[in-house]
Structure formats: structure tokens, C-alpha cells
TrEMBL record:
<dbReference type="InterPro" id="IPR013785">
    <property type="entry name" value="Aldolase_TIM"/>
</dbReference>
<comment type="pathway">
    <text>Cofactor biosynthesis; molybdopterin biosynthesis.</text>
</comment>
<dbReference type="GO" id="GO:0061799">
    <property type="term" value="F:cyclic pyranopterin monophosphate synthase activity"/>
</dbReference>
<dbReference type="GO" id="GO:0051539">
    <property type="term" value="F:4 iron, 4 sulfur cluster binding"/>
</dbReference>
<feature type="binding site">
    <location>
        <position position="31"/>
    </location>
    <ligand>
        <name>[4Fe-4S] cluster 1</name>
    </ligand>
</feature>
<comment type="similarity">
    <text>Belongs to the radical SAM superfamily. MoaA family.</text>
</comment>
<dbReference type="InterPro" id="IPR013483">
    <property type="entry name" value="MoaA"/>
</dbReference>
<comment type="function">
    <text>Catalyzes the cyclization of GTP to (8S)-3',8-cyclo-7,8-dihydroguanosine 5'-triphosphate.</text>
</comment>
<feature type="binding site">
    <location>
        <position position="261"/>
    </location>
    <ligand>
        <name>[4Fe-4S] cluster 2</name>
    </ligand>
</feature>
<feature type="binding site">
    <location>
        <begin position="266"/>
        <end position="268"/>
    </location>
    <ligand>
        <name>GTP</name>
    </ligand>
</feature>
<keyword id="KW-0501">Molybdenum cofactor biosynthesis</keyword>
<dbReference type="GO" id="GO:0046872">
    <property type="term" value="F:metal ion binding"/>
</dbReference>
<dbReference type="GO" id="GO:0061798">
    <property type="term" value="F:GTP 3',8'-cyclase activity"/>
</dbReference>
<keyword id="KW-0949">S-adenosyl-L-methionine</keyword>
<feature type="binding site">
    <location>
        <position position="33"/>
    </location>
    <ligand>
        <name>S-adenosyl-L-methionine</name>
    </ligand>
</feature>
<keyword id="KW-0342">GTP-binding</keyword>
<keyword id="KW-0547">Nucleotide-binding</keyword>
Length: 337
């Protein structure tokens, strides 16, 4: 067995501190930028990682320096047993920050339990405050339930980040109303460049994307005046700003332009156990095969360390490494965001 440092770094000097763990690929919405209207071919349940398998992987990753876990999907709350799983994750030595990304449809009744279990932050996917546009974008009429979740999270004094994908011709009129939420509410509203993850590739390049991070910022400044930059947290994907007189803040995530790769400190694990060291790679390790093939914790540790150490310098290199037959991108629901 090769020696592995307590804190793992990749070949570019970036630490591994954070894992995004998809607990399911299933979702109760059908956002058009994430999956087709008819849905996707879901992974058979027996091919999903069990909660016990996920706990084991997280424990090994904690030994490599991971301290933060964010649970994603699909929609995490469509999988039964989520709350007991969160409780067990919180008992893993070294894990001191558990977060959750949700669409908010099923979440509100569980907020008190989440707070009791020590979940610090919740990312709430919300692309519009207009009910008809919400129905068009998600193909479901669930906006009231999502807003109930928002208010429940704030009442529980939880850190809330609202994630809004900026889509040309779809929700541009919502950017200002969403940013207006920060005037009175202590929320972080983050605007995300649209990415090519919907079972096909975009014709736009980062340079020709209609609404890239620069245009998003200019649009907000045209309405609010200057966005005042805030210091970036280690590993942050968002450029964050405050608006004069606002209780909250706004952020812009250059997800397609990929301006934040130099400080990336994370990896992703899909619901079926695929490890992605970059959102744009094709998957670099199958931990399910290792787990079910009898691998020891040392075997897992060495495989995860090797995968992380050799990851691409940025999302562009990761995309270039994809085999030609895999240049169309999978549904975001299968990746975990």
C-alpha cells in the first residue's frame, strides 16, 4: 500500500476538502435544462450505492482531508431514509460540514429535523419567482411548495443559497426580482451560467454564451448600481457581491466559462458510484465496483487518491480528455451538480 498524506493534494496543488454526493438520480421536477420532459432512464435501484456504501466512501475520504459533504441528486428527498443517513454522516470523524441541495418541493416539513441534525446550509434551486414561468421551466406547478421551504429555512436560521440558472429567452426577466430578495432577506442569490448538461451539447462556446458571467453582472449593475466584490472563500465557485443597503448578497457562478477551476477543492460521486474529479470529465473511477468487488478501505483510499491526484487542470482539459463518443453531455440529474 502506498503512503497517503492526511491532506490530499492534486498535481496542481489543490487540496481535496469537499465531496458532492448524489444520493439518487431521480427527481420530481423535469427542468428542461436538466432532463428531457419524459425523464431519463433511471439507474435500477440495485445499481445505486447503498447508504452503507456511501458512508464507507465518505469515511475513507475524511481520512484524505474531506471535511465537507453536500448531498445532491436528482432530488435527495425522493430517496427514503435520507434523514437517518444524514445523522450517521455527522458521526464520521472529520466531517464537520454537511449541506444539502434541493429543489424544495418536499423539503419544508423536514427543515426542523435538518437543523437538529446539524445541516448548516441548504442550496435551493429556484430559477423564477413567477408561477407560470416556474411551471414552464420545471414542467410542474410546485412554486408555492418551494417558497414554503425558503421561508421554513429562514425561520430555522439556516444559511440559504438560492441557485438560479440563467437561460436566454426563459427567465431573464427574473434576474432582478430574484436579486431583490437580498434586500430584506439574509440569503445569497447565485446566478449560474447555463451548462450543456441535458443529454446533448451546446452550440455556444463560453465566449459566445448569450448570458455569460460578464453579461449577468452588467445586467444586475444596470439596475442596482455597482456590485461590490466580497473576498472569495477558499474553493468558492461563485464570485460574490453585496448591494448597498441589502441584507443578503448576490453571486455569479461562471460554470460554463470555468473561471474558478484554479481553486477547486472538490470531487463528485454519482448515485451509482462514479467518481468525477471535474464536472466536465467522463468519470474517472467506479467506486461501486471496488466496494462490491471486495476492496479494502486501503484499496479505496489508494484508488481515490490516485484519481484525485491526476485530475485535469481545469474544465477545458477535462472536456478534452473525454472520448470522442462521449462528447455529448449527460443529464445533470445523473451528475449531482
Amino acid at each position: 500500500m502506498s503512503a497517503v498524506p492526511t491532506q490530499l493534494y492534486d498535481a496542481h496543488g489543490r487540496p481535496l476538502e469537499y465531496v458532492r454526493l448524489a444520493v439518487t438520480d431521480r427527481c420530481n421536477l423535469r427542468c428542461f435544462y436538466c432532463m428531457p420532459e419524459e425523464g431519463i432512464a433511471y439507474v435500477p435501484r440495485q445499481e445505486l450505492l447503498t447508504y452503507e456504501e456511501m458512508e464507507r466512501v465518505v469515511a475513507v475520504l475524511a481520512g484524505l482531508g474531506v471535511r465537507k459533504v453536500r448531498l445532491t441528486g436528482g432530488e435527495p428527498f425522493v430517496r427514503r431514509g435520507l434523514l437517518p443517513f444524514i445523522e450517521r454522516l455527522g458521526q464520521i470523524p472529520g466531517i464537520d460540514d454537511i449541506g444539502l441541495t434541493t429543489n424544495g418541493v418536499l423539503t419544508a416539513p423536514h427543515v426542523p429535523t435538518l437543523a437538529r441534525l446539524g445541516v448548516r446550509s441548504v442550496n435551493l434551486s429556484l430559477d423564477t419567482l413567477d408561477r407560470s414561468r416556474f411551471r414552464r421551466i420545471t414542467r410542474r406547478d410546485e412554486l408555492p411548495q418551494v417558497l414554503d421551504t425558503l421561508h421554513a429555512l429562514l425561520a430555522a436560521d439556516m444559511q440559504v443559497k438560492i441557485n438560479a440558472v440563467v437561460m436566454d429567452g426563459q427567465n431573464i426577466e427574473d434576474l432582478v426580482p430574484l436579486a431583490e430578495l437580498t434586500r430584506d432577506l439574509p440569503v445569497n442569490v447565485r446566478f449560474i451560467e447555463e451548462m450543456p448538461f441535458n443529454g446533448g451539447s451546446h452550440e455556444a462556446t463560453p465566449a459566445t454564451l448569450p448570458w455569460n458571467h460578464r453579461r449577468i453582472r452588467q445586467h444586475l449593475e444596470d439596475h442596482f448600481g455597482p456590485l461590490l466584490p466580497l473576498p472569495a472563500a477558499p474553493g468558492a465557485t461563485a464570485s460574490e457581491f453585496r448591494l448597498a443597503g441589502h441584507a443578503g448578497r448576490v453571486g455569479i457562478i461562471a460554470a460554463y466559462s470555468r473561471t474558478f477551476c484554479g481553486s477547486c477543492n472538490r470531487l463528485r460521486i454519482t448515485a451509482e458510484g462514479g467518481v468525477k474529479t471535474c464536472l466536465y470529465d467522463q468519470g474517472v473511477l467506479d467506486v461501486r465496483a471496488l466496494l462490491r468487488g471486495g476492496a479494502s478501505d486501503d484499496d479505496l483510499r489508494d484508488a481515490l487518491a490516485a484519481a484525485f491526484h491526476t485530475r485535469a487542470a481545469d474544465g477545458f482539459e477535462a472536456e478534452q480528455r473525454r472520448p470522442v463518443h462521449q462528447l455529448s453531455f449527460e443529464s445533470m440529474s445523473t451528475i449531482g451538480g
